[in-house]
Amino acid sequence: MSNLATRVKKIRLQRGLSQTQLATKLGIGYMNIANLETGRVTNPRYLSELASALQTTVSYLVDGNKTSEVSIEAPMFIAALEKEIDLQLNKDYWVVEIDKSDKLFLTDNAKQVSKIKRIFK
């Protein structure tokens, strides 16, 4: 049975990467990759970046599911917004967390579209 450690090592070798090369792509030390591949680390904080660097999905790394895209049967709401957002397919939408004392600087063509009023648990 395959697990995260063996899948990471298998894909890394298929891509022709050393542990050091993969770690450099992620901006971490090679021991992080070694610990992951030996099973000492089972839930790395850099899982999304790892999947991207290995040109695969998080789903495949975690459970062996080769799904290339996520499909949701019905809309999921995790937050109540102050106003409705007119979602457009050619744009990416992000939820960010900032301290109230910090400033959020929007760059390029980004704009604030709504504020979160309530989080659903």
Describe this structure in words.
There is one protein chain. The chain is mainly alpha-helical and 121 residues long. The chain has a domain at 4-63: 434 Repressor (Amino-terminal Domain). It is built from five helices and two strands, in the order αααααββ. The protein has helices spanning 4-14, 19-26, 30-37, 47-53, 58-63; strands at residues 79-81, 116-119. The chain has a two-stranded antiparallel sheet with strand order 1-2. α2 (19-26) packs across α3. The chain is elongated. It starts with a helix and ends with a strand.
List the SSEs and their pairings.
Elements: H1 4-14, H2 19-26, H3 30-37, H4 47-53, H5 58-63, E1 79-81, E2 116-119
Antiparallel strand pairs: 1-2
Helix pairs in contact: 2-3
> Which regions contain 5 or more consecutive residues with pLDDT less than 50?
none
How far apart are the termini? Answer: 34 Å
Identify the quaternary structure here: single chain
Strand arrangement within the widest β-sheet reads: 1-2
Share of residues in strands:
5-15%
Which class do the helix and strand fractions yield?
mainly alpha
Work out the helicity level: 25-40%
Task: Compute the number of helices.
Answer: 5
The whole-number mean of residue pLDDT values reads 81
CATH superfamily of the domain at 4-63: lambda repressor-like DNA-binding domains
Overall CATH architecture of the domain at 4-63: Orthogonal Bundle
Rg from Cα: 19 Å
